[in-house]
Amino acid sequence: MPVLQGLEHWFWPLNTLEDPQYGWIIPILILNFAVLAIVTKFPKGIILNLMLLILVGYATQHMFALVEGRGLDGMRDRLVNTGHADFAIDAAYPPSVTRVMRDYRTMIDSGELHRYPHSTKPPGHFVVYILTGRLAAILTGIHPDVFERLATLTAFFFPLLTYLTLIPLFFLARLYLPQRQAHLPLILFMAAPNLNLITLHLDQVLYPFLFLLPITLYLYGFKRQNKTLLLLSGLSMAGIIYVSYSLIAVIAVVGLLGLMAIWKERPAFTPAIKSLVQVAIGFLVFELFQYFVFGFNLLGDYRYVMAQHQAWKVSQWTAPLTLYIGALDLLEYALWIGWPIFLFSASWMLKSPFRWRK
Question: What pTM was estimated for this model as a whole?
Answer without folding.
Answer: 0.91
